[in-house]
Amino acid sequence: MNPSRRISRRIAFQRMAALGASAVAPRFALAAQDGRARGAPAIDAAAIEKEAAAFANPLRLPGASGLYGVVRAADVREMRVVRTEVEMLPGRLTPYLAYAVEAGGRQFLNPALLARRGDEVRLRMVNRLDEPTIIHWHGLTNDARNDGSGLIVAAPGQTFDYAFTVRDRASMYFYHPHPHGYIPQQVYGGLASLLFVEDDEEAALRRSLDLSLGVTEIPLVLQDRRFDAQGRLQYKASPDERFAGFIGERLLVNLTEGPFIAAPRRIIRLRILNGSNARTYLLAFLQDGRQLGCYLAGTDGGLLAAPQRIVRTFISPGQRLDLLLDLREAAEGRPVTLATLAFDPMHLEGTGGHAMPGMDHGSMGAQSMPGMATEGEARALLRIDVKPAPGYANKVPATLSRLPAARAPAGSPRRIRLAHDGKSNWTIDGWTYDAKAIPITVRRGATETWLIENADASMPHPMHIHGFQFRVLARRGSPPQVHALAGVRGLLPQDLGLIDTVHVWPGETVQVALDFSHPFSGDQDYVFHCHNLEHAEVGMMIRYRVKA
Predict the structure, then answer these.
(1) To which H or E segment does residue 47 belong?
(2) How far apart are CA 283 and CA 312, in angstroms?
(3) SS3 string of 224-289?
(4) Rg (CA), the chain
(5) Are 124 and 83 in contact (CB under 8 A)?
(6) Are the CB atoms for 273 and 219 separated by under 8 Å?
């Protein structure tokens, strides 16, 4: 293979659109602000809504027990990591990995945990798998031992005791395994669920909008999967897929394929997690060929200071979005479709002259790279059947929280370069993962600016830092499909909040501000990595130390 053989993102996207099983010819452009503005992707809204019309499976929602059952985190004493079976496809049981919990006389699988800021969490994880594992509490500010970064793991048959205080703002966090060498397959196999943190500002929003979890406040976990003829999950990543990221052709929401819900014609809240290993989505709401606006209320680290009116938004692996959808803007008697719109996934970018190892770019398609023909295609995710809600007159509050404005720390920025080595490894500042090496050391209490540069790498990277949330200060060099959604300093609406994962597109430099203050004694070691889980496995993760 000649490593200088590359194709442009436009050609790659055209080929993907032509080859994708559900790709559709463009009919009209949906808007940046009103449904028809510049920079919007061309999609066939009718085809997406037709797909959604055939959805026949009720969306799985959090209940009092069972899968995604809701339980207070403080009431959980033991969490067993087990192999079980779940009905993901109608009428078929799929072998599945899950966190099993007993609390208050009820049985839970992958429970949705509830906690209030200040709560103490004390639980024992019991590893009943035949491989090592550990739980990472994604987005929470924990000491290194309780973070679950994978620097400490529990071997088969072993236990691990967690004891920490919930210190972070109210938001929807999540938990998942993080043993290096096993992360993608364990997450893909089922090990992930939600953690809702509450505080006074969160409670005020629920009161003002009359929200109820599982009824008018609905968590949505987006995942893509592959199944064999017997309905078993398939995760057999080829070298190309380990390098690019594992993409499944079938889309699920809350482990439901072809889902629908009935929702009252009022403001509903959708709390969305991208739980896919590698797939990015471009979300929008459609009705009768037009795009409905909504309000972005929060991001990874909780509520924004004020709601942001949007009509479409990217969400990359590991990110969360808190959306308020006013169904009074929808026509009565017609369903609304949550869709992922067509976009260029930018798998084959770069100026370094490197191609993906082993890929035949001259014949790129589903045969040479399963899944690549499906990321970026227009698809329906969820149908919302709108029912009457007489007498509801509530409005989205103008102020949501007391989130201070982001400020750049003093001093020179630290440059972080994302790249690949022309072989099979993604790198951070030239480093691939080494559990013994510590490429970055910061001082406890220090504030720093990081410039995360993706100038020469050939794919997007959702970069996640353990232990701390951060603020985005600016984006530069964004591709047109991203810049079309941006405001001042190139910032996207979700850049206005506290986040723990930032999507860095090819050609972009993202400037972020981090505050390494924490209450823990001694040195604390964490990791910084790409949340495309296959990228992290092939090198794109480094250890860093917060020195006391």
Answers:
(1) helix 45-53
(2) 5
(3) EECECCCCCECCCCCHHHHHHCCCCCEEEECCEECEEEEEECCEEEEEEEECCCCCCEEEEEEECC
(4) 22
(5) no
(6) yes
Sketch out the chain's domains with CATH numbers: 9-56+208-387 (2.60.40.420), 66-198 (2.60.40.420), 414-547 (2.60.40.420)
Measure the CA–CA gap between 454 and 461, rounded to whole angstroms: 8
Q: Are strands 509-515 and 461-465 parallel, antiparallel or unpaired?
A: unpaired
Alpha-carbon gap, residue 215 to 222, rounded angstroms: 18
Measure the CA–CA gap between 381 and 386, rounded to whole angstroms. Answer: 16
Can you give the pLDDT at residue 43?
Answer: 56
Return d(Cα 427, Cα 463) in angstroms, integer: 12
Average pLDDT over residues 475-497: 96
**Do β-strands 414-420 and 290-292 pair in parallel, antiparallel, or remain unpaired?**
unpaired
Q: Quote helix, strand, coil % in the chain, to nearest 5.
A: 15, 40, 45
Do the bridges between strand 217-225 and strand 509-515 make them parallel or antiparallel, or are there none, so unpaired? unpaired
| Contacting residues for 479 by C-beta, under 8 A, at least 6 apart | 9, 344, 346, 505, 506, 507, 508
- First-to-final CA distance of the chain: 49
Q: Is the pTM of this model over 0.85?
A: yes
| Each residue's pLDDT tens digit, 397-431 | 999 999 999 999 999 999 999 998 888 899 999 99
Percent of the chain predicted with pLDDT > 70: 87
- How far is residue 150's CA from residue 176's CA, in Å, rounded to a whole number? 11
> Distances in Å between the alpha carbon of 262 and those of 340, 386, 387?
20, 6, 7
The predicted pLDDT at position 475 comes to 98
Cβ atoms within 10 Å of 190's Cβ, excluding its own:
26
E-strand ranges in 356-508 read: 379-387, 414-420, 426-428, 440-443, 447-453, 461-465, 470-476, 501-504
For tokens 């067993």, the residue is 80
3-state DSSP call for residue 28?
strand
Over residues 430-463, the pLDDT tens digits come to: 999 999 999 999 999 999 999 999 976 679 999 9
Q: How many other C-beta atoms are found inside a 10 Å radius of the C-beta of residue 241?
A: 20
509-524: pLDDT as tens digits: 999 999 999 999 999 9
Q: What whole-number distance in Å separates Cα of residue 173 and Cα of residue 301?
A: 8
3-state DSSP assignment of residue 68: coil
Type and span of the H or E element at 187: helix 183-189
Whole-angstrom Cα distance, residue 296 to residue 345? 23
For 299, list phi and psi in degrees, rounded to 5: -130, -155
**What DSSP line would sit under 329-385, residue for residue?**
GSPTTS-EEEEE-------S--SS----TT--GGG-STTTSTTTTTTT--EEEEEEE
Give the neighbor-by-neighbor strand order of the sheet with 171-177.
70-72, 112-116, 193-198, 171-177, 135-138
- 360: tokens are 């035949």
Amino acid of residue 95: P
Q: CB-based contacts of 527: which residues, under 8 Å, 6+ apart?
A: 149, 150, 151, 466, 541, 542, 543, 544
Return d(Cα 284, Cα 293) in angstroms, integer.
8
